[in-house]
Amino acid sequence: MALTEISTLGEFGLIKHLTEEFPLKNPESVKGVGDDAAVLDFSHDPDTRVLVTTDVLLEGIHFDLVYTPMKHLGYKAAMVNFSDIYAMNGMPKQITVTIGVSKRISVESLDALYDGIRLACERHQVDLVGGDTTSSVTGLTISITCIGTAAKDKIVYRSGAKVNDLICVSGDLGAAYMGLQLLEREKTVFLQTKDGVQPDFAGKEYILERQLKPEARRDIIERLGQAGIVPTAMMDISDGLSSELLHICEQSKVGCRVYEEKIPIDFQTASMAETFNMNLSTCALNGGEDYELLFTVPLALHEQVNQIKGIKVIGYITDESEGTALVTRDGAELTLKAQGWNPLKNPVE
Amino acid sequence: MALTEISTLGEFGLIKHLTEEFPLKNPESVKGVGDDAAVLDFSHDPDTRVLVTTDVLLEGIHFDLVYTPMKHLGYKAAMVNFSDIYAMNGMPKQITVTIGVSKRISVESLDALYDGIRLACERHQVDLVGGDTTSSVTGLTISITCIGTAAKDKIVYRSGAKVNDLICVSGDLGAAYMGLQLLEREKTVFLQTKDGVQPDFAGKEYILERQLKPEARRDIIERLGQAGIVPTAMMDISDGLSSELLHICEQSKVGCRVYEEKIPIDFQTASMAETFNMNLSTCALNGGEDYELLFTVPLALHEQVNQIKGIKVIGYITDESEGTALVTRDGAELTLKAQGWNPLKNPVE
User: Fold this and answer.
1) B289 in contact with A, Cβ within 8 Å
2) Interchain pair B347, A102: CB under 8 A
3) Nearest chain A Cα to B53, which residue?
4) Which of A36, A124, A325, B258 is the most exposed place for a label (fewest CB within 10 A)?
């Protein structure tokens, strides 16, 4: 079947085509795509605050279309934005999606991208309310802005961690990074093999899914809410545990101790690190793209937090003067460094 | 003086550097740059609605750095977003700015970009509250989301035009397009001349400014508000008068008659069109990037609208069955066509 060129639809035709299957569901979404701006209503509760976050994904920097299915890419692009809203202890409500596309991208390919965005929106009860579509001289550009809400007295900033607070993380760390390593290796093998041998990913499904189709932790926010727990500080882990923890410590003006042995790591992550002969703790500390939640709670909530599924205590907050350190398995203290994934460290021309 | 490479600052250093001189001014802006999301407060008035719009500018598609000063580019990128909020009869309050930059862009160059954004924000009383910064494999990418407010019973959609309403535009049309033609011609001359002869833009300042540094019409919205006038339909003119008018007619399910002789055109625009041997009305109808306001008001408001500085009545709304037409100077009727500037019509690979 021949693919459809986007030029056959035109800009407005394309926007209409891509967004027509996004019926508005939230009462806060008054008017979506189709005018100069979307119209939202947050007046139902005077104690509601509005959260806004934005993230851009650029081809060649954040994703490689050689091994990234468009549907997964759409899902992930939406999810990384939802994750930022959850990290404020809020709930995502609306997104706007802006894409820059080159001629080689077909309408069918964009349909798959929007299928992924739609799935993410359905699962997290978010409305697509606007966006912009343009051509791009080069690669695919996806810029998403997410709007959410939170109760004004339950918003969690990075700056609220206090001495003796417990440091907690959801899920496990390093898997997305190991998934990326595996995909990069298989891409190299694929390109070097004349016959284009298909890679065997059996037994590696988890780390691949963590890289290609991460899930923002709405469930953790809901469980914390049900337990009546409001963290003192919170962030989502996009650049790596070390980097995010240093942000919290810097903005809260505190120090920390994190125990290497407490960092949650999945079996597939550990197995892959061994295959690649990489240091497992380094992967978990600096890997990035986990989209798990990192937060602190008062020491008094130790029992309550321990009872919540999917949360692990990995350390505690100290006075600023004690610095930020990782306590290794043999009891040594190593100063934490932000070696996280930083797309500006080695900008490509 | 040597220019500073962005890699010396790192992602977080760069964001901090670029955004530190944007103090929050609006009471609706609770928390700006520096956390996972910005926090906004729209709870002061239950009749307030929140508007959200987003626009992306890509190098090679929307701007050419050969003749676009970075400060002007920043100003324009902010302004095109403000314009969308005004076109809903709202007031812009916050923006988030996301940039993708290649290695060849210096910190000083980004400073100039943000100087332009800052100037636009100061003039229109808008707070910069967030964003994202990343490297780009190729050109400069600027994606801005603007949040605004409007009284719920005064929001103006594209769909409200009624038969016999007057069609009005602010300012004059076609100037930004002629400015672009002039810049493109001078670029060609410059590139063909070995000595790099500097172009002479004397007497062309107005059309150049219209292209490089457009001004969103906050003043028109304020004057309409002072006169107690709520348009029945409104859009800003970014793709050209024809294209926008067809949007209003389609969404309002009406027709229109626009008088060629009534379309406001500046002297410099007319003079430049003559130099280029281009049809002046075509330039004014299809030129695009004017960022003027196109709106409709009930016939009964004719006198009131005429008294407002900077607004001109150019035609009227008809029944849908009468079609959409331009009435030429000799009384002929030509069907309006959307030949506006469409960045998807000829996507570049």
Assistant:
1) no
2) yes
3) A37
4) A325
Average pLDDT over residues B93-113: 92
Q: What are the structure tokens assigned to A280, written together?
A: 């497992």
Determine which of A7-11, A154-158, B93-97 has the lowest per-residue pLDDT on average. Answer: A7-11
Q: What are the start-end ranges of the E strands in A185-279?
A: 233-236, 255-259
The CA distance from A45 to A30, in Å, is 16
Q: Report the 10 Å Cβ neighbour count for A295.
A: 30
The DSSP secondary structure of A67-111, one letter per residue, reads: T--HHHHHHHHHHHHHHHHHTTT-EEEEEEEEEEE-TTSBHHHHH
What's the CA gap between B250 and B325, in Å, rounded?
13
Cα A56 to Cα A45: distance, rounded to the nearest angstrom: 31
- A268-320 residue pLDDT tens: 999 999 999 999 999 999 998 999 999 999 999 999 999 999 999 999 999 99
pLDDT the model gives residue B348: 34
Q: What is the pTM of this model?
A: 0.93
- d(Cα A134, Cα B100) in Å, to the nearest integer? 16
Find the mean pLDDT for residues A19-23. Answer: 89
pLDDT tens-digit map of B206-224: 999 999 999 999 999 999 9
Assign A229 to helix, strand or coil.
Answer: coil
Nearest partner of A155 among B43, B44, B36, judged by Cα: B36
Minimal C-alpha gap between A53 and chain B (Å) = 5
**Residues ≥6 apart with Cβ < 8 Å to A132:** A96, A98, A99, B54, B55, B56
A residues 56..115 contacting B (CB < 8 A):
56, 58-62, 84-85, 87-88, 90, 94, 96, 98, 100-104
Asked if A47 contacts A152 with a C-beta cutoff of 8 angstroms, the reply is yes
Give the integer Cα–Cα distance in Å for B156 and A137. 35
Quote the minimal CA–CA distance from A234 to chain B in Å. 9
Measure CB to CB from residue A54 to each of B31, B50, B145 and give the nearest one: B145
Q: Which residues of B touch A12 (CB under 8 A)?
A: 247
Report CB contact under 8 Å: B38, A53: yes
d(CA B47, CA B9): 44
Confidence of residue B342 (pLDDT cuts 50, 70, 90): low
CB B59 within 8 A of CB B140: yes
Chain A contact for B345, CB < 8 A? yes
Nearest chain A Cα distance for residue B293, angstroms: 11
The 3-class secondary structure across A278-334, one letter per residue, is CCHHHHHHHCCCCCCEEEEECHHHHHHHHCCCCEEEEEEEECHHHCEEEECCCCCEE
Q: State the angle between helix axes of A205-212 and A267-275 in degrees (0 to 180), rounded to the nearest 10.
A: 100
Residue pair B140/B204 in contact by the 8 Å Cβ criterion: no
**How many cross-chain Cβ pairs, A to B, lie less than 8 Å apart?**
269
Mean pLDDT of chain A: 92
Please, what are the domains in chain A?
A: 11-151 (3.30.1330.10), 166-335 (3.90.650.10)
pLDDT band for position A214 (50/70/90)?
very high
Please report which confidence band the pLDDT of residue A349 belongs to, taking 50, 70 and 90 as the band edges.
very low
- Is the minimum CB–CB distance between B133 and chain A shorter than 8 Å? yes
The answer to whether the CB atoms of B132 and A55 lie below 8 A apart is yes
ipTM: 0.90
Instruction: Tell me whether residue B321 is exposed, middle or buried, using C-beta atoms within 10 angstroms of its C-beta: 0 to 12, 13 to 18, 19 or more.
Output: exposed
B85 token code pair: 């909020």
Sign of CA dihedral A21, A49, A244, B22: positive
